[in-house]
Amino acid sequence: MKIHAIQTGTVAIKKNQLIGKGAGARRLVNVLFGREWVQPPVPIYAWVIEHEEGVIVVDTGETARTSEVGYFPRWHPYYNLAVRFQVKPEQEIGAQLKQMGIYSKDVTKVILTHMHTDHAGRLHDFPDSAIHVNMPEYKRTHGFRGQIDGYLSHRFPNWFSPQPIEFDGGAFGAFDKSWNVTAKGDVKVVPTPGHTPAHVSVIVTSEDVHYFLAGDTSYTEENLLRKIPDGVSPNPNQAVDTMQHILSFAKQRLTIYLPSHDPNSELRLKNKATLSFSE
Ligand SMILES: [Zn+2]
Fold first, then answer.
1. Right CATH number for 2-271 from 1.10.10.350, 3.60.15.10, 3.40.640.10, 3.40.30.10?
2. Which of these, 121, 181, 228, 265, could form a disulfide with 223 (CB 3.0-4.6 Å)?
């Protein structure tokens, strides 16, 4: 089994999104009108697991179409004020997989940590795969309410018909339920709500190490250790509770923590750098 980090461009965000500031509705206002941008822009990672049961992709990254005028809803304050994507066509996940000799038909399963645009931007590259989503997350993308929450469901491919994630796999470490992605049981999905209410993470076990493909449970490892929720989570307390669970998991087992936007995720994967606790 081999895990690859696929960087699908970068995204510039505000400092108040990286490190949430204020209480309640103020948090989002601080993101929209914050003056400081995170420098440099952060990476957008997706993950590819070359598994004996088939290739598994976790998140699909962002699309180069984000540079087209009108790709985002023009009226949307977040897309107007608080985010700038930089994705070249050759950085899209399908193009990168082809370079690696991996084609759509080789990918048996795609798992989405959540459905924000920078994670669900290239579903189009996986017409032959079973795409698994936590159904409450999918429901949140629907309609005008979904657009207000920043989802771009009108950009999903018209053939898109997600498969559910069923949490029927019992407890796994600090998580009270899980779902087995592989028959072997070495790739599991666990619930990690907070960044979105039905956000999930993927844990890949190889030898004695757990690779925690975290999505947006925190933007960086440092924010996890300091339990800093981002500025866009609808429920920052729930995000902190999830971080607590991840930290408990990582205290029990060797864990490499790989969030989608941490500039050091790729290096930690390469160096097999596990989370360490200074106590
Ligand atoms: Zn997100």
1. 3.60.15.10
2. 228
